[in-house]
């Protein structure tokens, strides 16, 4: 798991697109973090492991959750026009 966390989040950071209603209005950029910080957040219960198994769901899955975790890492939001938001996302993904 260490290589995955470090390769995904410890290079250039991350971004989150925020919706207002049904429209993406903001993009939030977050600082990079490494595997050790991620594990520390699990120990402090900022990140939890959710098995996602419940009645009626035939597919088993698991994921890590942590809404306050992401909110603490991202920098102040910038309001953006929707067309520029798409271009920023493409640039981040392919640079």
User: What characteristic shape results from the CA principal axes?
Assistant: globular
Structural class: alpha+beta
Compute the separation of the termini in Å.
24 Å
Query: Which segments are poorly predicted (pLDDT under 50) over 5 or more consecutive residues?
Result: none
Biggest sheet character? 3 strands, antiparallel
Please give the count of helices.
4
Q: How large, in whole angstroms, is the Cα Rg? A: 16 Å
Q: Could you characterize what this model shows?
A:
By secondary structure, the chain is α+β, with helices and mostly antiparallel strands. The chain has one domain (2-94). 39% of the residues lie in helices and 24% in strands. It is built from four helices and five strands. Strand 1 and strand 2 (23-30) form a beta hairpin. The model has no long low-confidence stretch (mean pLDDT 78).
């Amino acid at each position: 798991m260490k290589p995955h966390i470090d390769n995904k989040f410890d290079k250039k950071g991350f971004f989150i697109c925020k919706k207002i209603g049904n429209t993406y209005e903001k993009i939030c950029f977050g600082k990079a973090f490494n595997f050790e910080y991620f594990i520390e957040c699990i120990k402090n219960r900022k990140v939890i492991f959710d098995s996602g198994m419940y009645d009626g769901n035939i597919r088993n899955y698991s994921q890590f959750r942590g809404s306050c975790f992401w909110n603490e890492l991202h920098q102040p939001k910038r309001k953006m026009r929707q067309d520029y938001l798409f271009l920023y996302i493409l640039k981040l993904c392919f640079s």
